[in-house]
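Quick entry between incubations.
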Amino acid sequence: MEQISTKLTKKDILNTWKARWGINRMNYKKDPGLYRVGEANEMSPVLVTANYKMSFDMLRKELTGIDAWILVLDTKGINVWCAAGKGTFGTDELVNRIADVHLSEIVSHRTLILPQLGAPGITAHEVENRSGFEVIYGPVRAADIKKFIIGGKNADSDMRQVRFSFYDRLVLTPVEIKGAVKIWAIVLLVMLVLNFIHHGAFGMTDYFGYSAAILFGCFLVPLLLPWIPGSAFAWKGWLLGIIGVICLNALNGSIFVTEYSTVRAWGYILALPSVSAYFAMNFTGCSTYTSVSGVVKEMKYAVPYIIASLILGVILILYDAFIYMN
Amino acid sequence: MKHKYLKNVVTLKLNPIKCIGCGMCLNVCPHAVFLLYNGKAEIADIDSCMECGACARNCAYEAIEVKSGTGCAAAILYGKLTGEEPCCDCCGK
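Done. Structure below.
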């Protein structure tokens, strides 16, 4: 089987960055199978991971100086945690892959070290019954794997807790922004066309306000997440949005913002924070701590409000643009 | 810092009668929801539970119940609109 290096090349790093921007993210795969690190022999530990190349790279770069086997599961190019939730980083795939690579002939021990975040998809006792291999859950972060192995396969509670730091949140924003680009462009185009039909309907304030509302939801809320009051993400988005609109309205008539009527101002108050709220709510899918029940509950209140206030706000803005103004 | 989400919503349940104190739930939980006390597991911080289902799946004694699933707002919306399973297309189908 393939001997692999623990050093990431410039190309690996570039491709990781690209994947973070959603470029080729869905096709960034490693072939499933068994890989050898260092001088791995029949007594070396077996570390299991997903066939998303980023997952594979994040693991192997932590293994300098370690002799180990890496067992790559076919998770359709998806990372460990998402695949576990979906079931592809699952019991069946693990058991089948063990048989596929003839693992029992390669190692004399009967132990596997799995990433802790694979647990939602793996029934450890069933894996043992079916394959003869015992599942030991290693740390959440690959960065702790060396310490884990050398320390006798013990994880302290810090190694077992998932974080969601500023940096963790920051690297998730490009893909969120990219996801918003299509709808952002469509609405901008509509505004430009309407402005062409009826000159003066929309101006820089509208383009800017609308763009800012999206960025608030996709970028600002994720970054400032724990520091924004309230627990629901939609609320956090709405709160930043309303602050933004108040500033926008306060600047009305200044050199920064073209003057507009009260009708338009109320239109902004209704529509823009809801745009931010919608995109902020979407960030729940990227987060590491939101419960399913919580998201459902949040949406029960947020979605009707967002739809209603968006429609009302747009009606006011259109009324102002086409009827009220001239 | 421990992030806080909505309180009193999660479906996590632990049956102390079935629990034998193996500690597997502590091993797999990403948010330190459980602790071991007097030879049995207990829910120490229920509002930190994200309903990932790792504990229930790895409890060989069926002492834990939780309704896990896709927690992505876009996926849930899509599921409600189409009548299908929640899916936001980012999980590789």
